[in-house]
């Protein structure tokens, strides 16, 4: 790892981030980072333990003169999203993140950076290790599996935490203070079908959709970004209706909370349509590129004739219903909030499509800050896929975080921000799934707030963290800790 990261200011923050990023920490495989964090707490002589689900809690007493302040919980999640460019050779299970400085940004070479939520975790670590930073009694809560189910926050039992105020350090705009967030639910449609033999006189093609930006399926869902699965289905729909195209295989997208950047399909058509098929498809591609030229200037669609034609394909009747169900299934913003300006209320991300060998799976993540609206969209998706014969499972539902405009810690944070920056912060609810909603289930009286440094492109290989913003965030955090309300 380049020493230039460790030399960035504030060094205490960036060095802890570098230490953390040297530890592989994919969601649901957090064993190494859990041990890393426990060893860190114990090395400081602080009370350190795991709960039943393997969240790590580290307690640090108040610094002299701060004993009369309310105890706080500083919270971040240990896991990170693993995404890489298709041409990047990298093993997330064994390698640390390869970081570098690009002007005001810290980036990773061809992979996600892990600033979500690694910078928040690093900030907490720096406070725990400090000997000269004023703060009240602290419980550092490091949750697991935030990115693929929030199971750490979901299974944190009541009675473990003693703090009265929670600082969640997991937002990505440094001029925003979050006081609410969306809930979510996984919608998964599955089906089986009897494959049929490829007709004689067929030719095989590989269709690849790539070059999309991708991004966070909550924070970026309103930006009009391309969804590789929806683009691929548009091509398959046209090819099927005009040339009798049949699908052998689809592999599109990866994680539910990442807008899919790539999709690859293997298909067959009658050889008599070979030349017309390629010409017609290119016209469709040109239309899509024109539509997305502003948000997706690097979109590529590649057609390659296969050396070996697939032996089996999806039957035409099953495919007829599949491509239409995919067309019908909503993707993107479903409704904007009527109560908060510019806030996405409800959305869906068609995140992953896998088809082949007689099996089909479509995975979605539906989000909403209104619980009833969340299930309304989930039911709409369910209906679309059940009409084609799929079984649909709704799972992993988690609640949103209801905004509290009377928050005591909000009254502390806003004037500090204004004094330090000369500007007013945006007090908002966000469309991402923060853990505060889940934590509040068992700790309903805890006063919660969320803030953090500016991060762009989270959940994609374009993820980057602003150096100047991290300095702003650190300065703000130190002043907040010094001004926690009296008991």
From TrEMBL:
Q: Which Gene3D superfamilies match?
A: Zn peptidases
Look up the record and name the cofactor or cofactors this protein needs.
Answer: Co(2+); Zn(2+)
Family classification: Belongs to the peptidase M20C family.
Origin superkingdom: Bacteria
Q: What is this protein called?
A: Cytosol non-specific dipeptidase
Any idea where the Peptidase M20 dimerisation domain is? 208-294
Q: Where does the signal peptide begin and end?
A: none
The record's listing under InterPro entries reads: Peptidase_M20 (IPR002933), Peptidase_M20_dimer (IPR011650), Peptidase_M20C (IPR001160)
How would you classify this enzyme at the top EC level? hydrolase
């Amino acid at each position: 790892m380049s020493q230039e990261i460790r030399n960035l200011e504030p060094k205490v923050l960036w060095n802890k981030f570098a230490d953390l990023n040297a530890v592989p920490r994919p969601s649901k495989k957090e064993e190494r980072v859990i041990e890393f964090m426990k060893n860190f707490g114990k090395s400081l002589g602080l009370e350190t333990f795991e709960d039943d689900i393997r969240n790590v809690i580290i307690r640090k007493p108040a610094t002299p003169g701060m004993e009369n302040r309310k105890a706080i919980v500083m919270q971040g999640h240990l896991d990170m999203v693993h995404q890489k460019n298709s041409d990047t050779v990298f093993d997330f299970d064994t390698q640390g993140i390869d970081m570098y400085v690009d002007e005001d940004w810290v980036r990773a070479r061809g992979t996600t950076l892990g600033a979500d939520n690694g910078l928040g975790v690093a900030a907490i670590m720096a406070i725990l290790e400090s000997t000269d930073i004023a703060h009240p009694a602290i419980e550092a809560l490091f949750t697991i599996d935030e990115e693929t189910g929030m199971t750490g926050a979901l299974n944190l039992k009541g009675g473990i935490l003693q703090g009265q105020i929670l600082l969640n350090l997991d937002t990505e705009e440094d001029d925003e203070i979050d006081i609410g967030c969306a809930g979510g639910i996984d919608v998964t449609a599955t089906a089986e079908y009897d494959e049929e033999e490829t007709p004689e006189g067929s030719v095989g093609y590989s269709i690849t959709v790539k070059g999309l930006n991708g991004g966070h399926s909550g924070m970026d869902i309103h930006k009009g970004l391309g969804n590789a699965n929806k683009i691929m289905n548009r091509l398959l729909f046209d090819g099927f209706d005009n040339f009798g195209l049949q699908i052998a295989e689809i592999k599109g997208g990866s994680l539910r909370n990442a807008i899919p950047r790539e999709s690859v399909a293997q298909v067959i058509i009658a050889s008599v349509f070979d030349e017309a098929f390629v010409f017609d498809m290119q016209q469709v591609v040109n239309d899509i590129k024109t539509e997305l030229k502003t948000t997706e200037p690097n979109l590529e669609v590649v057609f390659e004739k296969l050396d070996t034609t697939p032996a089996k394909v999806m039957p035409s009747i099953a495919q007829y219903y599949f491509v239409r169900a995919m067309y019908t299934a909503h993707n993107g913003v479903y409704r904007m909030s009527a109560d908060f300006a510019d806030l996405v209320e409800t959305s869906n991300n068609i995140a992953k499509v896998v088809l082949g060998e007689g099996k089909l799976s479509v995975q979605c993540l539906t989000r909403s800050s209104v619980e009833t609206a969340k299930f309304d969209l989930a039911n709409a998706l369910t209906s679309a896929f059940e009409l084609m014969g799929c079984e649909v499972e709704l799972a992993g539902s988690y609640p949103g975080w209801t905004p509290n405009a009377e928050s005591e810690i909000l009254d502390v944070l806003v004037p500090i921000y204004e004094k330090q920056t000369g500007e007013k912060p945006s007090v908002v609810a966000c469309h991402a799934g923060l853990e505060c909603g889940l934590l509040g289930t068992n700790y309903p009286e805890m006063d919660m707030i969320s803030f953090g440094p500016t991060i762009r492109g989270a959940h994609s290989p374009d993820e980057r963290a602003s150096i100047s913003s991290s300095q702003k965030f650190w300065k703000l955090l130190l002043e907040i800790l010094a001004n926690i309300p009296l008991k």
